[in-house]
Amino acid sequence: MEIIRGTVVWKFEDHFNADRIVGSKNIGEKNIDILGQVCMAEFDPDFVKRVRPGDIMIAGRNFGYGHPHQQSIQSLKKVGISCVIAESFYPGWYRMAFFHNLPVMVCPAISKLAEVGQELEVDFITGKIKNFNTGKTIQGEPIPPFLIEVLHAGGLVPFLRKQDISNKP
Amino acid sequence: MGQTITEKIISKKLGKNKYKAGDVVFIEPDIAMLYDWPGFDGMVREININPDKVILNIDHFFIQSNEEQAKVLRNFRLTQRKYNLKYFYDVGRSGIGFQLLAEKGHIRPGLLGVHADPHVSTYGAFGAYMIGVGGDIMSVFMLGKCWIKLPQTLKIEVTGKFQDGVTSRDLFEKILKDLGPDGGLGMVIEYSGPTVSEMSMESRMVLCNSVQYLAAETAIIGSDEKTIEYLKSYGVKNIDVLQSDADAIYAKTVKFDVSKLEPQIVTPPDVFYVKSIKDVEGTELHQAMIGTCASGRIEDLRLAARVLKGKKVHPRVRMFISPITPRIYEQAASEGLISVFTEAGAVLGPASCGFCYGGFGYLLPGENAITTGTLNIPGRMGSIYSNIYMGNPATVAASAIEGKITDPRKYL
Protein backbone atom coordinates (compact mmCIF):
# COMPACT_ATOMS: atom_id res chain seq x y z
CA MET A 1 0.00 0.00 0.00
CA GLU A 2 3.01 2.32 0.03
CA ILE A 3 2.60 2.93 -3.69
CA ILE A 4 -0.78 3.52 -5.25
CA ARG A 5 -1.84 4.29 -8.79
CA GLY A 6 -5.04 6.08 -9.74
CA THR A 7 -6.78 8.76 -11.78
CA VAL A 8 -7.38 12.28 -10.56
CA VAL A 9 -11.17 12.52 -10.25
CA TRP A 10 -11.47 15.98 -8.63
CA LYS A 11 -9.48 19.13 -8.01
CA PHE A 12 -10.50 21.33 -5.05
CA GLU A 13 -9.92 25.05 -4.52
CA ASP A 14 -8.02 26.56 -1.54
CA HIS A 15 -9.56 26.46 1.98
CA PHE A 16 -12.15 23.92 0.89
CA ASN A 17 -14.55 23.20 3.75
CA ALA A 18 -14.74 19.40 3.70
CA ASP A 19 -18.27 19.36 5.15
CA ARG A 20 -19.39 20.27 1.63
CA ILE A 21 -18.35 16.80 0.43
CA VAL A 22 -21.50 15.43 2.09
CA GLY A 23 -23.46 18.69 2.44
CA SER A 24 -24.11 20.50 5.72
CA LYS A 25 -27.32 18.58 6.37
CA ASN A 26 -25.39 15.30 6.50
CA ILE A 27 -22.65 16.23 8.96
CA GLY A 28 -24.41 14.24 11.71
CA GLU A 29 -25.23 11.26 9.46
CA LYS A 30 -24.11 7.90 10.84
CA ASN A 31 -25.18 5.62 7.98
CA ILE A 32 -22.09 4.96 5.83
CA ASP A 33 -24.17 3.90 2.81
CA ILE A 34 -25.99 7.23 2.80
CA LEU A 35 -22.67 9.07 3.17
CA GLY A 36 -21.43 7.22 0.09
CA GLN A 37 -24.55 8.08 -1.91
CA VAL A 38 -24.35 11.83 -1.22
CA CYS A 39 -20.63 12.17 -1.95
CA MET A 40 -19.92 15.43 -3.84
CA ALA A 41 -23.61 15.71 -4.82
CA GLU A 42 -23.53 19.50 -4.34
CA PHE A 43 -20.91 19.77 -7.09
CA ASP A 44 -21.81 16.92 -9.42
CA PRO A 45 -24.95 14.78 -8.97
CA ASP A 46 -23.36 12.09 -11.16
CA PHE A 47 -20.11 11.96 -9.20
CA VAL A 48 -20.95 8.69 -7.45
CA LYS A 49 -21.72 7.07 -10.82
CA ARG A 50 -18.40 7.99 -12.40
CA VAL A 51 -15.97 7.73 -9.48
CA ARG A 52 -14.01 4.47 -9.52
CA PRO A 53 -12.30 2.70 -6.63
CA GLY A 54 -8.69 3.88 -6.48
CA ASP A 55 -9.39 7.38 -7.79
CA ILE A 56 -7.33 10.23 -6.35
CA MET A 57 -8.38 13.74 -5.33
CA ILE A 58 -6.10 16.78 -5.40
CA ALA A 59 -6.51 20.12 -3.66
CA GLY A 60 -5.06 23.56 -3.06
CA ARG A 61 -4.08 25.08 0.28
CA ASN A 62 -5.61 24.31 3.69
CA PHE A 63 -7.85 21.46 2.53
CA GLY A 64 -10.48 20.48 5.11
CA TYR A 65 -10.85 23.90 6.76
CA GLY A 66 -13.56 24.26 9.40
CA HIS A 67 -14.82 22.16 12.28
CA PRO A 68 -13.66 18.71 11.21
CA HIS A 69 -16.52 16.21 10.92
CA GLN A 70 -15.68 12.61 10.13
CA GLN A 71 -18.54 12.24 7.63
CA SER A 72 -16.51 13.77 4.78
CA ILE A 73 -13.79 11.17 5.21
CA GLN A 74 -16.21 8.29 5.64
CA SER A 75 -17.89 9.38 2.41
CA LEU A 76 -14.61 9.47 0.44
CA LYS A 77 -13.62 6.07 1.84
CA LYS A 78 -17.00 4.62 0.89
CA VAL A 79 -16.71 5.63 -2.78
CA GLY A 80 -13.17 4.25 -2.91
CA ILE A 81 -10.97 7.36 -2.99
CA SER A 82 -7.45 6.03 -2.45
CA CYS A 83 -5.65 9.23 -1.50
CA VAL A 84 -6.03 13.00 -1.21
CA ILE A 85 -3.01 15.10 -2.17
CA ALA A 86 -3.12 18.79 -1.23
CA GLU A 87 -0.78 21.76 -1.18
CA SER A 88 -1.49 21.81 2.57
CA PHE A 89 -4.09 20.43 4.96
CA TYR A 90 -6.10 21.90 7.80
CA PRO A 91 -4.47 20.13 10.79
CA GLY A 92 -7.68 18.70 12.27
CA TRP A 93 -8.76 17.15 8.98
CA TYR A 94 -5.29 15.73 8.32
CA ARG A 95 -5.29 14.06 11.72
CA MET A 96 -8.77 12.66 11.21
CA ALA A 97 -7.91 11.20 7.79
CA PHE A 98 -5.33 8.90 9.38
CA PHE A 99 -7.77 8.01 12.17
CA HIS A 100 -10.07 6.68 9.42
CA ASN A 101 -7.26 5.10 7.38
CA LEU A 102 -7.42 7.50 4.43
CA PRO A 103 -3.89 8.25 3.17
CA VAL A 104 -3.33 11.95 2.60
CA MET A 105 -0.15 13.58 1.40
CA VAL A 106 1.19 17.12 1.25
CA CYS A 107 2.61 18.30 -2.08
CA PRO A 108 2.99 22.08 -2.44
CA ALA A 109 3.17 21.88 -6.27
CA ILE A 110 0.30 19.45 -6.87
CA SER A 111 -2.25 21.96 -8.23
CA LYS A 112 0.18 23.20 -10.86
CA LEU A 113 1.39 19.78 -11.95
CA ALA A 114 -1.72 17.60 -12.12
CA GLU A 115 -5.19 17.91 -13.62
CA VAL A 116 -8.45 15.98 -13.50
CA GLY A 117 -8.29 12.87 -15.69
CA GLN A 118 -4.53 12.40 -15.40
CA GLU A 119 -3.08 9.22 -13.99
CA LEU A 120 -0.72 9.41 -11.03
CA GLU A 121 1.50 7.01 -9.14
CA VAL A 122 2.00 8.09 -5.54
CA ASP A 123 4.74 6.77 -3.27
CA PHE A 124 3.83 7.51 0.35
CA ILE A 125 7.29 6.61 1.64
CA THR A 126 9.43 8.73 -0.70
CA GLY A 127 6.80 11.40 -1.43
CA LYS A 128 7.35 11.05 -5.19
CA ILE A 129 4.34 11.52 -7.45
CA LYS A 130 4.63 10.40 -11.05
CA ASN A 131 2.27 11.91 -13.60
CA PHE A 132 1.90 9.41 -16.47
CA ASN A 133 0.22 11.94 -18.74
CA THR A 134 2.95 14.56 -18.55
CA GLY A 135 5.81 12.20 -17.80
CA LYS A 136 6.88 14.46 -14.95
CA THR A 137 7.72 13.41 -11.41
CA ILE A 138 6.76 15.76 -8.60
CA GLN A 139 8.28 15.71 -5.13
CA GLY A 140 5.71 15.71 -2.32
CA GLU A 141 6.33 15.33 1.41
CA PRO A 142 6.70 11.71 2.50
CA ILE A 143 4.03 10.53 4.95
CA PRO A 144 5.79 10.47 8.36
CA PRO A 145 6.86 6.94 9.40
CA PHE A 146 4.58 6.91 12.45
CA LEU A 147 1.54 7.60 10.28
CA ILE A 148 2.60 4.91 7.79
CA GLU A 149 2.39 2.50 10.74
CA VAL A 150 -1.12 3.75 11.50
CA LEU A 151 -2.10 3.12 7.86
CA HIS A 152 -0.54 -0.36 7.98
CA ALA A 153 -2.72 -1.18 10.98
CA GLY A 154 -5.83 0.05 9.16
CA GLY A 155 -6.42 3.31 11.03
CA LEU A 156 -5.95 4.60 14.54
CA VAL A 157 -8.26 2.28 16.46
CA PRO A 158 -6.79 -0.94 14.99
CA PHE A 159 -3.35 0.60 15.56
CA LEU A 160 -4.16 1.14 19.25
CA ARG A 161 -5.51 -2.42 19.57
CA LYS A 162 -2.20 -3.77 18.26
CA GLN A 163 -0.14 -1.98 20.91
CA ASP A 164 0.95 -3.72 24.04
CA ILE A 165 -1.03 -1.97 26.73
CA SER A 166 0.78 -3.86 29.47
CA ASN A 167 3.67 -1.60 28.59
CA LYS A 168 1.58 1.50 29.11
CA PRO A 169 3.27 4.66 30.37
CA MET B 1 20.28 27.99 21.35
CA GLY B 2 17.20 29.54 22.88
CA GLN B 3 13.82 27.85 22.98
CA THR B 4 10.22 28.98 22.63
CA ILE B 5 7.72 28.15 25.39
CA THR B 6 6.31 25.36 23.24
CA GLU B 7 9.74 23.85 22.61
CA LYS B 8 10.45 23.93 26.35
CA ILE B 9 7.23 22.14 27.24
CA ILE B 10 7.55 19.45 24.59
CA SER B 11 11.31 18.98 25.04
CA LYS B 12 10.65 18.07 28.66
CA LYS B 13 8.86 14.98 27.29
CA LEU B 14 11.15 14.23 24.35
CA GLY B 15 14.53 14.84 25.89
CA LYS B 16 17.14 17.47 25.23
CA ASN B 17 17.87 18.51 21.63
CA LYS B 18 15.22 16.18 20.23
CA TYR B 19 12.79 18.87 19.11
CA LYS B 20 12.73 19.04 15.33
CA ALA B 21 9.83 20.99 13.84
CA GLY B 22 7.80 18.88 11.42
CA ASP B 23 8.59 15.56 13.12
CA VAL B 24 5.67 13.38 14.13
CA VAL B 25 6.21 12.00 17.64
CA PHE B 26 4.18 9.75 19.93
CA ILE B 27 4.05 11.67 23.18
CA GLU B 28 2.52 11.50 26.66
CA PRO B 29 0.27 14.43 27.63
CA ASP B 30 -0.18 15.40 31.27
CA ILE B 31 -3.97 15.60 31.09
CA ALA B 32 -6.74 14.48 28.74
CA MET B 33 -10.00 16.44 28.80
CA LEU B 34 -13.38 15.72 27.25
CA TYR B 35 -16.93 17.06 27.30
CA ASP B 36 -20.29 15.55 26.48
CA TRP B 37 -21.18 15.16 22.79
CA PRO B 38 -22.72 12.27 20.85
CA GLY B 39 -19.95 9.76 20.17
CA PHE B 40 -17.58 11.23 22.76
CA ASP B 41 -19.04 8.85 25.36
CA GLY B 42 -17.72 6.03 23.16
CA MET B 43 -14.23 7.55 23.02
CA VAL B 44 -13.81 7.44 26.78
CA ARG B 45 -15.09 3.89 27.25
CA GLU B 46 -11.67 2.35 27.69
CA ILE B 47 -9.24 4.02 30.10
CA ASN B 48 -5.86 2.37 30.72
CA ILE B 49 -4.05 5.39 32.14
CA ASN B 50 -3.90 6.92 35.59
CA PRO B 51 -7.53 8.04 36.03
CA ASP B 52 -6.36 11.27 37.69
CA LYS B 53 -5.11 12.44 34.29
CA VAL B 54 -8.65 12.27 32.90
CA ILE B 55 -10.95 15.27 33.31
CA LEU B 56 -14.54 15.11 32.12
CA ASN B 57 -17.15 17.81 32.31
CA ILE B 58 -20.71 18.30 31.18
CA ASP B 59 -21.33 21.51 29.29
CA HIS B 60 -23.05 20.79 25.98
CA PHE B 61 -26.11 18.98 27.34
CA PHE B 62 -26.27 20.89 30.59
CA ILE B 63 -30.02 20.46 30.52
CA GLN B 64 -30.56 17.27 28.54
CA SER B 65 -33.52 17.70 26.22
CA ASN B 66 -33.86 14.38 24.40
CA GLU B 67 -33.08 10.69 24.76
CA GLU B 68 -29.79 10.81 22.86
CA GLN B 69 -28.41 13.57 25.09
CA ALA B 70 -29.62 11.88 28.26
CA LYS B 71 -27.85 8.68 27.19
CA VAL B 72 -24.57 10.49 26.52
CA LEU B 73 -24.69 11.88 30.06
CA ARG B 74 -25.56 8.47 31.50
CA ASN B 75 -22.61 6.90 29.68
CA PHE B 76 -20.26 9.55 31.09
CA ARG B 77 -21.53 8.75 34.59
CA LEU B 78 -21.06 5.02 34.01
CA THR B 79 -17.48 5.67 32.88
CA GLN B 80 -16.87 7.81 35.94
CA ARG B 81 -18.01 5.00 38.24
CA LYS B 82 -16.23 2.23 36.35
CA TYR B 83 -12.86 3.95 36.58
CA ASN B 84 -13.55 5.86 39.78
CA LEU B 85 -12.61 9.14 38.09
CA LYS B 86 -11.83 11.88 40.57
CA TYR B 87 -12.35 14.73 38.12
CA PHE B 88 -15.85 14.52 36.71
CA TYR B 89 -17.95 17.67 36.75
CA ASP B 90 -21.59 16.76 36.34
CA VAL B 91 -24.67 18.92 35.78
CA GLY B 92 -24.89 21.67 38.38
CA ARG B 93 -21.25 21.21 39.37
CA SER B 94 -19.87 22.09 35.98
CA GLY B 95 -19.80 25.05 33.61
CA ILE B 96 -18.22 25.66 30.23
CA GLY B 97 -15.12 23.48 30.21
CA PHE B 98 -12.81 26.07 28.67
CA GLN B 99 -13.07 28.20 31.82
CA LEU B 100 -14.16 25.68 34.45
CA LEU B 101 -10.96 23.63 34.40
CA ALA B 102 -8.90 26.72 35.24
CA GLU B 103 -11.22 27.51 38.15
CA LYS B 104 -10.87 23.92 39.35
CA GLY B 105 -7.09 24.21 39.41
CA HIS B 106 -6.30 21.81 36.56
CA ILE B 107 -4.44 24.30 34.37
CA ARG B 108 -0.92 25.60 34.98
CA PRO B 109 2.04 26.87 32.96
CA GLY B 110 4.15 24.13 31.38
CA LEU B 111 1.32 21.63 31.13
CA LEU B 112 0.82 19.55 27.98
CA GLY B 113 -2.87 18.75 27.57
CA VAL B 114 -5.20 17.31 24.94
CA HIS B 115 -8.92 17.58 24.29
CA ALA B 116 -11.07 16.44 21.39
CA ASP B 117 -11.99 20.09 20.72
CA PRO B 118 -9.39 22.57 19.39
CA HIS B 119 -11.00 25.41 21.40
CA VAL B 120 -8.88 24.02 24.25
CA SER B 121 -6.29 26.44 22.84
CA THR B 122 -8.04 28.88 25.23
CA TYR B 123 -5.82 27.48 28.00
CA GLY B 124 -2.71 28.40 26.06
CA ALA B 125 -3.29 31.74 27.80
CA PHE B 126 -1.74 30.16 30.93
CA GLY B 127 1.51 29.15 29.22
CA ALA B 128 0.29 25.59 28.67
CA TYR B 129 0.49 23.63 25.42
CA MET B 130 -3.07 22.55 24.76
CA ILE B 131 -4.18 20.89 21.55
CA GLY B 132 -7.38 19.51 20.08
CA VAL B 133 -6.90 16.03 18.63
CA GLY B 134 -10.46 14.93 17.78
CA GLY B 135 -11.02 11.19 18.04
CA ASP B 136 -7.30 10.66 18.67
CA ILE B 137 -8.09 11.45 22.32
CA MET B 138 -8.87 7.71 22.49
CA SER B 139 -5.19 7.10 21.96
CA VAL B 140 -4.45 8.94 25.21
CA PHE B 141 -7.17 7.18 27.19
CA MET B 142 -6.05 3.76 25.92
CA LEU B 143 -2.26 4.11 25.70
CA GLY B 144 -1.43 7.33 27.50
CA LYS B 145 0.06 8.79 24.32
CA CYS B 146 -0.98 10.40 21.07
CA TRP B 147 0.85 11.59 17.99
CA ILE B 148 1.62 15.24 17.47
CA LYS B 149 3.43 17.06 14.71
CA LEU B 150 6.04 19.31 16.30
CA PRO B 151 5.09 22.84 15.33
CA GLN B 152 7.07 25.93 14.44
CA THR B 153 6.06 29.08 16.29
CA LEU B 154 4.43 32.15 14.76
CA LYS B 155 5.07 35.13 17.02
CA ILE B 156 2.44 37.84 17.14
CA GLU B 157 3.61 40.99 18.90
CA VAL B 158 0.89 43.37 19.99
CA THR B 159 1.34 47.02 20.88
CA GLY B 160 -0.97 49.95 21.58
CA LYS B 161 -3.91 50.61 23.86
CA PHE B 162 -7.43 49.41 23.00
CA GLN B 163 -10.16 52.01 22.61
CA ASP B 164 -13.00 51.56 25.09
CA GLY B 165 -15.47 49.06 23.59
CA VAL B 166 -12.79 47.25 21.59
CA THR B 167 -11.54 43.96 23.04
CA SER B 168 -9.06 41.15 22.48
CA ARG B 169 -11.79 39.44 20.47
CA ASP B 170 -11.63 42.25 17.92
CA LEU B 171 -7.86 41.88 17.84
CA PHE B 172 -8.20 38.16 17.12
CA GLU B 173 -10.69 38.79 14.29
CA LYS B 174 -8.35 41.41 12.82
CA ILE B 175 -5.47 38.95 12.93
CA LEU B 176 -7.64 36.36 11.16
CA LYS B 177 -8.70 38.93 8.56
CA ASP B 178 -5.12 40.01 7.86
CA LEU B 179 -3.34 36.65 7.95
CA GLY B 180 -6.13 34.62 6.34
CA PRO B 181 -7.59 31.19 7.13
CA ASP B 182 -4.25 29.43 6.79
CA GLY B 183 -2.18 32.25 8.26
CA GLY B 184 -1.02 30.02 11.12
CA LEU B 185 -1.05 26.68 9.31
CA GLY B 186 0.33 23.92 11.48
CA MET B 187 2.03 26.43 13.80
CA VAL B 188 1.58 27.45 17.40
CA ILE B 189 0.77 31.14 17.73
CA GLU B 190 2.70 32.82 20.54
CA TYR B 191 1.23 36.16 21.57
CA SER B 192 3.50 38.69 23.21
CA GLY B 193 4.21 42.39 23.47
CA PRO B 194 3.17 45.14 25.89
CA THR B 195 -0.55 44.96 25.03
CA VAL B 196 -0.64 41.25 25.87
CA SER B 197 1.26 41.86 29.13
CA GLU B 198 -1.33 44.47 30.05
CA MET B 199 -4.25 42.16 29.26
CA SER B 200 -6.28 40.40 31.94
CA MET B 201 -6.26 36.59 31.92
CA GLU B 202 -9.83 36.71 30.60
CA SER B 203 -8.77 38.78 27.57
CA ARG B 204 -5.82 36.46 26.97
CA MET B 205 -8.12 33.44 27.00
CA VAL B 206 -10.39 35.07 24.41
CA LEU B 207 -7.35 35.87 22.25
CA CYS B 208 -6.32 32.19 22.31
CA ASN B 209 -9.82 30.72 21.97
CA SER B 210 -10.25 30.23 18.22
CA VAL B 211 -6.80 30.08 16.61
CA GLN B 212 -7.91 26.90 14.84
CA TYR B 213 -9.54 29.27 12.31
CA LEU B 214 -6.03 30.30 11.25
CA ALA B 215 -5.32 26.57 10.79
CA ALA B 216 -2.96 26.82 13.75
CA GLU B 217 -2.26 23.92 16.10
CA THR B 218 -2.86 26.09 19.14
CA ALA B 219 -1.91 29.36 20.84
CA ILE B 220 0.32 30.12 23.80
CA ILE B 221 1.21 33.09 26.01
CA GLY B 222 4.12 33.20 28.41
CA SER B 223 3.12 33.11 32.07
CA ASP B 224 3.78 36.13 34.29
CA GLU B 225 2.62 37.77 37.52
CA LYS B 226 -0.94 38.03 36.17
CA THR B 227 -1.04 34.30 35.45
CA ILE B 228 0.23 33.51 38.93
CA GLU B 229 -2.21 35.86 40.63
CA TYR B 230 -5.17 34.45 38.70
CA LEU B 231 -4.33 30.81 39.34
CA LYS B 232 -3.52 31.47 43.01
CA SER B 233 -7.03 32.83 43.44
CA TYR B 234 -8.23 29.35 42.44
CA GLY B 235 -5.90 27.59 44.85
CA VAL B 236 -3.11 26.59 42.44
CA LYS B 237 0.31 26.52 44.11
CA ASN B 238 3.94 26.43 42.92
CA ILE B 239 3.24 28.17 39.62
CA ASP B 240 6.14 28.59 37.19
CA VAL B 241 6.96 31.66 35.19
CA LEU B 242 7.50 30.27 31.71
CA GLN B 243 8.63 32.53 28.87
CA SER B 244 10.39 32.03 25.55
CA ASP B 245 14.12 32.69 25.57
CA ALA B 246 15.23 35.98 24.05
CA ASP B 247 17.13 34.12 21.33
CA ALA B 248 14.37 31.61 20.54
CA ILE B 249 13.76 31.03 16.85
CA TYR B 250 10.41 31.83 15.25
CA ALA B 251 9.10 30.82 11.84
CA LYS B 252 7.79 34.36 11.48
CA THR B 253 7.03 37.44 13.56
CA VAL B 254 4.00 39.61 12.83
CA LYS B 255 3.17 42.91 14.55
CA PHE B 256 -0.21 44.42 15.33
CA ASP B 257 -1.02 47.82 16.81
CA VAL B 258 -4.46 48.03 18.41
CA SER B 259 -4.62 51.81 18.96
CA LYS B 260 -6.87 52.43 15.96
CA LEU B 261 -8.59 49.04 15.95
CA GLU B 262 -12.38 49.24 15.57
CA PRO B 263 -14.95 46.67 16.67
CA GLN B 264 -14.87 43.78 14.20
CA ILE B 265 -17.83 41.72 13.03
CA VAL B 266 -17.68 38.16 11.71
CA THR B 267 -20.30 37.89 8.97
CA PRO B 268 -21.97 34.91 7.29
CA PRO B 269 -21.25 32.37 5.95
CA ASP B 270 -18.02 31.45 7.74
CA VAL B 271 -15.66 32.50 10.50
CA PHE B 272 -13.10 34.22 8.29
CA TYR B 273 -15.51 36.72 6.67
CA VAL B 274 -14.45 39.49 9.04
CA LYS B 275 -15.54 43.09 8.50
CA SER B 276 -15.12 46.35 10.33
CA ILE B 277 -18.30 47.33 12.17
CA LYS B 278 -18.98 50.34 9.94
CA ASP B 279 -19.44 47.99 6.96
CA VAL B 280 -22.35 46.11 8.57
CA GLU B 281 -23.86 48.70 10.94
CA GLY B 282 -27.63 48.84 10.71
CA THR B 283 -28.21 45.15 9.88
CA GLU B 284 -31.57 44.25 11.45
CA LEU B 285 -31.50 41.70 14.29
CA HIS B 286 -33.90 39.27 15.94
CA GLN B 287 -31.68 37.65 18.52
CA ALA B 288 -28.60 38.51 20.57
CA MET B 289 -26.49 36.29 22.78
CA ILE B 290 -23.54 36.77 25.13
CA GLY B 291 -21.87 33.62 26.37
CA THR B 292 -19.92 30.56 25.06
CA CYS B 293 -16.25 29.69 25.65
CA ALA B 294 -15.29 32.86 23.74
CA SER B 295 -17.05 35.15 26.23
CA GLY B 296 -19.28 35.09 29.34
CA ARG B 297 -16.31 35.76 31.64
CA ILE B 298 -16.58 38.40 34.34
CA GLU B 299 -14.99 41.23 32.35
CA ASP B 300 -17.27 40.44 29.38
CA LEU B 301 -20.30 40.67 31.66
CA ARG B 302 -19.06 43.91 33.24
CA LEU B 303 -18.58 45.42 29.79
CA ALA B 304 -22.04 44.30 28.61
CA ALA B 305 -23.59 45.67 31.82
CA ARG B 306 -21.97 49.08 31.28
CA VAL B 307 -23.74 49.23 27.92
CA LEU B 308 -27.07 47.80 29.09
CA LYS B 309 -27.40 49.64 32.42
CA GLY B 310 -30.73 51.47 32.50
CA LYS B 311 -31.48 50.47 28.88
CA LYS B 312 -33.99 48.06 27.37
CA VAL B 313 -33.44 45.35 24.79
CA HIS B 314 -35.20 46.31 21.53
CA PRO B 315 -38.76 44.88 21.37
CA ARG B 316 -37.94 42.77 18.29
CA VAL B 317 -34.89 41.15 19.91
CA ARG B 318 -34.67 38.11 22.18
CA MET B 319 -31.52 38.43 24.25
CA PHE B 320 -29.77 35.58 26.05
CA ILE B 321 -26.85 35.99 28.43
CA SER B 322 -25.03 32.99 29.80
CA PRO B 323 -22.23 33.48 32.36
CA ILE B 324 -19.50 30.94 31.60
CA THR B 325 -19.57 29.07 34.94
CA PRO B 326 -21.78 29.09 38.05
CA ARG B 327 -18.96 30.78 39.90
CA ILE B 328 -18.87 33.64 37.42
CA TYR B 329 -22.66 33.81 37.61
CA GLU B 330 -22.41 34.29 41.38
CA GLN B 331 -19.72 36.91 40.98
CA ALA B 332 -21.86 38.76 38.42
CA ALA B 333 -24.82 38.61 40.80
CA SER B 334 -22.78 39.98 43.71
CA GLU B 335 -21.64 42.88 41.51
CA GLY B 336 -25.24 43.66 40.54
CA LEU B 337 -24.72 42.75 36.88
CA ILE B 338 -27.45 40.12 36.73
CA SER B 339 -30.14 42.64 37.70
CA VAL B 340 -28.88 45.02 35.01
CA PHE B 341 -29.46 42.22 32.48
CA THR B 342 -32.87 41.14 33.73
CA GLU B 343 -34.08 44.74 33.99
CA ALA B 344 -33.00 45.25 30.38
CA GLY B 345 -35.14 42.26 29.37
CA ALA B 346 -32.45 39.65 28.78
CA VAL B 347 -32.91 35.98 29.67
CA LEU B 348 -30.17 34.56 31.89
CA GLY B 349 -29.14 31.10 30.74
CA PRO B 350 -27.24 28.27 32.40
CA ALA B 351 -23.48 27.97 31.94
CA SER B 352 -23.74 25.85 28.82
CA CYS B 353 -22.51 25.60 25.24
CA GLY B 354 -26.14 25.24 24.14
CA PHE B 355 -26.54 28.81 22.95
CA CYS B 356 -23.56 28.47 20.62
CA TYR B 357 -24.17 25.14 18.88
CA GLY B 358 -27.94 25.66 18.49
CA GLY B 359 -29.08 23.74 21.56
CA PHE B 360 -31.33 26.63 22.55
CA GLY B 361 -32.55 29.73 20.71
CA TYR B 362 -33.63 28.40 17.30
CA LEU B 363 -33.43 30.90 14.43
CA LEU B 364 -36.09 30.84 11.69
CA PRO B 365 -35.36 31.44 7.98
CA GLY B 366 -34.59 35.11 7.40
CA GLU B 367 -33.76 35.83 11.05
CA ASN B 368 -30.47 37.43 12.04
CA ALA B 369 -28.57 36.99 15.28
CA ILE B 370 -25.53 38.62 16.79
CA THR B 371 -23.50 36.58 19.25
CA THR B 372 -20.20 36.27 21.05
CA GLY B 373 -20.16 32.65 19.80
CA THR B 374 -17.43 30.66 18.11
CA LEU B 375 -18.97 29.57 14.82
CA ASN B 376 -21.42 31.10 12.33
CA ILE B 377 -21.79 28.56 9.53
CA PRO B 378 -25.31 28.29 8.05
CA GLY B 379 -27.62 26.18 10.22
CA ARG B 380 -25.47 26.46 13.34
CA MET B 381 -28.28 28.03 15.41
CA GLY B 382 -31.38 26.90 13.50
CA SER B 383 -32.40 27.35 9.89
CA ILE B 384 -29.67 27.28 7.24
CA TYR B 385 -31.44 30.41 5.90
CA SER B 386 -30.78 32.40 9.09
CA ASN B 387 -27.66 34.54 9.53
CA ILE B 388 -25.22 34.65 12.42
CA TYR B 389 -22.98 37.65 13.04
CA MET B 390 -20.38 37.60 15.80
CA GLY B 391 -18.75 40.39 17.78
CA ASN B 392 -17.50 41.44 21.19
CA PRO B 393 -19.86 41.60 24.22
CA ALA B 394 -20.19 45.41 24.06
CA THR B 395 -21.16 45.22 20.40
CA VAL B 396 -23.73 42.52 21.10
CA ALA B 397 -25.19 44.54 23.99
CA ALA B 398 -25.41 47.81 22.01
CA SER B 399 -26.88 45.94 19.02
CA ALA B 400 -29.50 44.30 21.26
CA ILE B 401 -30.64 47.73 22.48
CA GLU B 402 -31.02 49.16 18.98
CA GLY B 403 -32.27 46.01 17.26
CA LYS B 404 -29.58 46.37 14.63
CA ILE B 405 -25.82 45.99 14.47
CA THR B 406 -24.49 48.98 16.41
CA ASP B 407 -21.08 50.38 17.26
CA PRO B 408 -20.85 50.11 21.08
CA ARG B 409 -18.48 53.03 21.54
CA LYS B 410 -21.29 55.57 21.74
CA TYR B 411 -22.69 53.73 24.79
CA LEU B 412 -19.41 53.83 26.73
What CATH architecture of chain A would you give? Alpha-Beta Barrel
**Biggest sheet of chain B, strands in spatial order?**
4-3-2-5-6
Say how many strands of chain B there are: 18
CATH evolutionary superfamily of the largest domain in chain B: Aconitase, domain 3
- Indicate the proportion of strand residues of chain B: 15-25%
Q: What's the structural domain tally of chain B?
A: 2
Order of helices and strands of chain A: EHHEHEHEHEEEHH
Helix and strand composition category of chain A: alpha/beta
Terminal-residue CA separation of chain B: 48 Å
Strand content of chain A: 15-25%
Q: Count the strands of chain A?
A: 7
Secondary-structure arrangement, i.e. CATH architecture of the largest domain in chain B: 2-Layer Sandwich
Count helical runs of chain B. 14
- Indicate the CATH topology of the largest domain in chain B: Aconitase, domain 3
What's the oligomerization state? heterodimer
The largest β sheet of chain B comes out as: 5 strands, parallel
Beginning-to-end CA distance, first to last residue of chain A: 31 Å
Can you tell me about this structure?
The complex is a heterodimer of chains A (about 170) and B (about 400). Chain A has a single domain (about 5-165), classed as Aconitase, domain 4. Helix content of chain A is about 30%, strand content about 20%. Chain A has seven helices and seven strands, in the order βααβαβαβαβββαα. Chain A has helices at about 30-35, 45-50, 70-80, 90-100, 110-115, 145-155, 155-160; strands at about 5-10, 55-60, 85, 105, 120-125, 130, 135-140. The longest helix of chain A has 9 residues, at about 90-100. The model of chain A has no long low-confidence stretch (mean pLDDT about 95). Chain B has two domains: about 20-255, Aconitase, domain 3 (2-Layer Sandwich); about 265-405, Aconitase, domain 3, CATH 3.30.499.10. The longest helix of chain B has 17 residues, at about 65-85. Chains A and B meet through helix 4, helix 6 and helix 7 of A and strand 1 and helix 5 of B.
